[in-house]
Amino acid sequence: MGAPPGYRPSAWVHLLHQLPRADFQLRPVPSGFAPQEREYQQALLLVVALAGLGLGLSLILIAAYLIRVCCCQPPGPPSAKSPPPGGGCVTWSCIAALLIGCAGIGIGFYGNSETSDGVSQLSSALLHANHTLSAIDHLVLETVERLGEAVRTELTTLEEVLTQRTELVAATRGARRQAEAVTQQLQGLAFWQGVPLSPLQVAEDVSFVEEYRWLAYVLLLLLQLLVCLFTLLGLAKQSKWLVIMMTVMSLVVLVLSWGSLGLEAATAVGLSDFCSSPDTYVLNLTQEETGLGSDILNYYFLCNQAVSNPFQQRLTLSQRALANIHSQLQGLEREAVPQFPSAQKPLLSLEETLNVTEGNFHQLVALLHCRGLHKDYGAALRGLCEDVLEGLLFLLLFSLLSAGALATALCSLPRAWALFPPRSGGERAGSWGEDGGGSTLKGLVCGGRILMDPCIAPQ
Amino acid sequence: MGAPPGYRPSAWVHLLHQLPRADFQLRPVPSGFAPQEREYQQALLLVVALAGLGLGLSLILIAAYLIRVCCCQPPGPPSAKSPPPGGGCVTWSCIAALLIGCAGIGIGFYGNSETSDGVSQLSSALLHANHTLSAIDHLVLETVERLGEAVRTELTTLEEVLTQRTELVAATRGARRQAEAVTQQLQGLAFWQGVPLSPLQVAEDVSFVEEYRWLAYVLLLLLQLLVCLFTLLGLAKQSKWLVIMMTVMSLVVLVLSWGSLGLEAATAVGLSDFCSSPDTYVLNLTQEETGLGSDILNYYFLCNQAVSNPFQQRLTLSQRALANIHSQLQGLEREAVPQFPSAQKPLLSLEETLNVTEGNFHQLVALLHCRGLHKDYGAALRGLCEDVLEGLLFLLLFSLLSAGALATALCSLPRAWALFPPRSGGERAGSWGEDGGGSTLKGLVCGGRILMDPCIAPQ
């Protein structure tokens, strides 16, 4: 009857968690999440380095391909009857690559918004936890103040009124002792008071970082979209300088794509390690940061039958003391009021205070129960380990598609511009974009007709 | 110090809620959510009818356009030197329309997944609420049984042991009375027992409907994607029968798009009315369905300072009775055990039971507090009024784009196939799809070259 079933690691977490990890000396590293350990850091850096290796390899392959094409088959004018081998499909492969890149951009936008959703779920769970914790502190403070005020004023008045009958004064003193006991017990319940860790601060930090991450990705995605569209435009208008500029931009975006791929892969691997068994790590980290006892943290982070409520005894003692105050006040009302009518006012006021205190006490019991805070913890984990991880995997797919598409485009673009008919170089360069879209398609079609001579030849 | 700020209507809700509504006689209808009222139903049906009107209008416009084109400018062979006015841009506008349709499909997939997310948030909130409600019932049942067992066995044994000393027997009887009072108070707390409404059932029903809605949209989106791709293929291969078939399919999808647009618009309008002030409607509906008192429902649905806990008195009485049992047991232990050592065993067992009952009582206080259930209510509202509404608006945008794109395509396609060179009719019809993708593009390019003769003419 504890919390309902909460976070469970997904299949992706298991899959990524089972991938082998190695440090810089290629010795295997255990896949438990330990970001403070040197070997684990090296394992994550190695994932980033793999992306760097991929970038290097693809650059070498592109260079080798282009050198081979340049040196072995110097491009002649395409009007020669024998078509350059493969030359007919240069523009085709370039366009296909750019379209795949555009599909990748769609996937990237989806992944970016999914990641953003996950982070906002995480920070809203942190804000909710912060609200609960500060509500506990506030409620304890308020109740303690109210009880203290009642002890100072009403109980003192009552003692003065009843001063002639010692047994009634003794009962009043008993109520005072019980009230002080309740105050003391309640003060021990404000467990988050003075703790240096603020979930609000963490949520703000997370949102701040996420804002910039989101913006950076949107800019990268827009940059790649622009490169794709302007490259298509350049091919359509056969504008040599636009295609050359876009080739250079493609190179820049290729480097950025591999870079983001490395970061995403390392983050996804680290996140999968964290998400496969988050409780231990979060427990230890929170204990270090807050200095709270492990019984309290275990209660909130695990929240199952096996862990007993660490506030149980304080709550029970407060409850008994409150019940005792009530029966003492009732006794006083029965005994004292007929003889001392002036005792009625402070007694009624005390009963009112007692009722409010009991209401606050029930609210406090509800707030202190692990259910609420554990639900926030589960929501934060689901945001991080389901939505954020899923978003990262989509971004990874985007980076992969974009790296592949850009590498293909980089192989084809120089060949495509080399195949542009010489006259179009100077003549058309200045005129692109001055006429409507119809002529763009016309150019694409006309350019295609020339570049794909072998296609049209059999007609 | 109640629940943290929960659901707030979004800007979209306000915007849609402010749109004027009218019934079939075009009299204005107030925009409060009242699905059981005839006029409100008519207002929603009118929104669907508007989409039907849109479909009719677009069909008439398409037919008029095609008749005008057919009758006024009978398509001659495109080889004539004077190009048919506008004929050069037929394929262009067709391709642009299909590409816009494809972008719409992407938006539709996003909207569909967003709606699905919202519904799953709604049903998970319902499941969570169901868990809380059944946990309350279960906990009350368990505690009452445990207390009843203690009264039947340990307290009876104790009375038998202490039968020689009447004042101790009286104290035991006092404890028995208090235990019975606790049992009675606790039984009143299981407020959901015997209520005919099960959130679990509602969640299952919602998930069931959502599953089919999701599937239907995915099928519609895939159908539209296939129509777009095959139309492009047909244009590229100049395959007359494929283009004719796709024109018919486009007509079918156009009707489906307008139909889905009407349903989405009506749902969005109804949802915005519901979401602008959901509390009253949900309160009344739940009261009708469950027959629970309005104090209980107000407490859980509003959960603010102004509404007091309807279980406060029962909880306070139970708490006092438990404290009294405790003090009576302590008194018995002090007085009876030195004289009757055999009383120790039942007394210890009773104290154990009392401790467990106090733990259960604190858990019950936490479960009964409005915080948890109100948070589920807020999550359900956010799922329905934020995610589902946002998803519906994206689906609306998809339907609009798709209706526009298909209408343009339907205007252009018959003109495009009329412009296909006659020889390609029979010759190519059987051969599409038998050669690779390269020839598709080739066809698109070659077809484009012919269809866009005016573009190439100035060369």
Automatic annotation (TrEMBL), chains A, B:
The highest taxon in the source lineage is Eukaryota
Would you tell me the Gene Ontology cellular component terms?
Answer: chloride channel complex; plasma membrane; smooth endoplasmic reticulum membrane
Annotated catalysed reactions? L-glutamate(out) = L-glutamate(in); chloride(in) = chloride(out)
Transmembrane ranges, per UniProt, are 43-67, 88-110, 214-235, 242-261, 392-413
- Keywords in alphabetical order, please: Cell membrane, Chloride, Chloride channel, Disulfide bond, Glycoprotein, Ion channel, Ion transport, Membrane, Transmembrane, Transmembrane helix, Transport
Where, per UniProt, does this protein localize?
Cell membrane
The record's section on InterPro entries has: Tweety
* Membrane topology type: Multi-pass membrane protein
Kindly give the Pfam families that the UniProt entry links to this protein: Tweety (PF04906)
| Molecular functions (GO terms) | intracellularly calcium-gated chloride channel activity; volume-sensitive chloride channel activity
Q: What does this protein do?
A: Probable chloride channel.
Subunit (UniProt): Homotetramer; disulfide-linked. Homodimer.
The UniProt family comment states: Belongs to the tweety family.
Protein name per Swiss-Prot or TrEMBL? Protein tweety homolog
**UniProt source species:** Pteropus vampyrus
